[in-house]
Amino acid sequence: MIEVTNLTKRYGPHLAIDGLNFTVAKGEVVGFLGPNGAGKTTTMKIITGYMAPSDGSVKVAGFDVFENPVEVKQRIGYLPEVPPVYTDMYVNEYLTFVAKLKGVPSEKIASMVDSSLQKTNLQEVHKRLIKNLSKGFRQRVGIAQALVSDPEILILDEPTVGLDPKQVAEIRHLIQELRKSHTIILSTHILPEVQASCERIIIINRGRIVAEDSLEGLSRKMSRGQRIFLKIRRNSKELVDSIASLDGVRKVESVDGNGVLHVDTDETEDLLERLSDHVVKKGVGLLEMRSSTFNLEDIFLKLTGSESHIAKH
Fold first, then answer.
1. 186, 219, 252: which is the final residue of a domain?
2. The domain spanning residue 83 has which CATH number?
3. Mean pLDDT of the chain
4. Which of 113, 182, 257, 277 has a CA that sits 20 to 30 A from residue 29's CA?
5. Which helix H or strand E contains 113, and what residues bound it?
């Protein structure tokens, strides 16, 4: 459905995106994840035809974005990071205006507007001025304008940025409903957004793709072993150092002040037994021990190398 080949964008000497290659199949929901400034928005603007690349190509349903822009834009609904709404218009008036801009046949405009209002739960505010709506409702209007032509593909750039927790939950639920009938690219730096909605994850950092897989696949690739969760009654630096010295242990991290340790290990069959024997012999009060996979936050931090841009809400 979407094919991105060697996509590059330069702003003078600055390389915003550098040789991106990825595809999105029909019906997929793909999370485009990365820290602020990684190149996500630039990529989305090129895919939707709002910006020209320096090099490379993008095809949507077999049509080149810049050789056949009308064919491509008929198939894409786009929500930019800042919703493109006219605040002095009424909701239904604005959606009717957008439907006309997108070339929806005049006999279908009313039904398309009504359908987009229903999908985004905007019926109760459809006669209100957009400037009088809350930020959450304005975001819904932004999604409704992306839906009003019933496109095959939805590209949503940071759809929950700046919303309160209740509004975030509402938008996530809406995305879950939309995934049933649309191919979706969800660009975000908010980790739960991806975990809640996406089947496949593309992680971009400094303009390059650094990982691409399902969450489970990324976890397997990144761990190269397993993470063991330990909860003990009496923690100490001496204990942490002694665990770190065991064969097969790559890293030991004391997570909090309540005796929780994360032990990253190689794949060895007897390590769990050796580790439990070691902790018991130390007499520190073993309360819990279990293995776990690396979560998306662990993977994100490993691949992007910065906690300063991560969002967990």
1. 219
2. 3.40.50.300
3. 85
4. 113
5. helix 109-119
Within 10 angstroms of residue 176's Cβ, the number of other Cβ atoms is: 12
Query: For the chain, what percentages of helix, strand and coil (3-state, to nearest 5) are there?
Result: 35, 30, 35
Tell me what percent of the residues of the chain surpass a pLDDT of 90.
31
Q: How far apart are CA 74 and CA 274, in angstroms?
A: 61
CA-nearest of 111, 183, 175 to 151 is 183
pTM of the prediction?
0.71
Mean pLDDT of 187-216: 83
Q: 295 Cβ partners below 8 Å, 6+ apart?
A: 219
Residues 75 and 48 in one domain: yes
CB atoms inside a 10 Å sphere around CB 85: 20
How far is CA 101 from its chain centroid? 29
The first and second tokens of residue 145, run together, are 């304008």
- Rounded to whole angstroms, the Cα distance separating 212 from 204 reads 9
Band of residue 69 on the pLDDT scale cut at 50, 70, 90: confident
Distances (CA, A) of 253 to 217, 265, 278: 24, 12, 17
The token pair that represents 248 in the structure block: 């097969």
Q: Residue 265 pairs with which residues in a beta bridge? A: 226, 249
Task: Using DSSP, state whether 233 is helix, strand or coil.
Answer: coil
**How far is it, in rounded angstroms, from Cα 284 to Cα 279?**
7
Mean pLDDT of 217-223: 66
Q: In what order do the strands lie in the sheet with 63-64?
A: 14-24, 2-11, 55-60, 63-64
Sheet holding 249-254, edge to edge: 249-254, 260-265, 226-232, 286-292
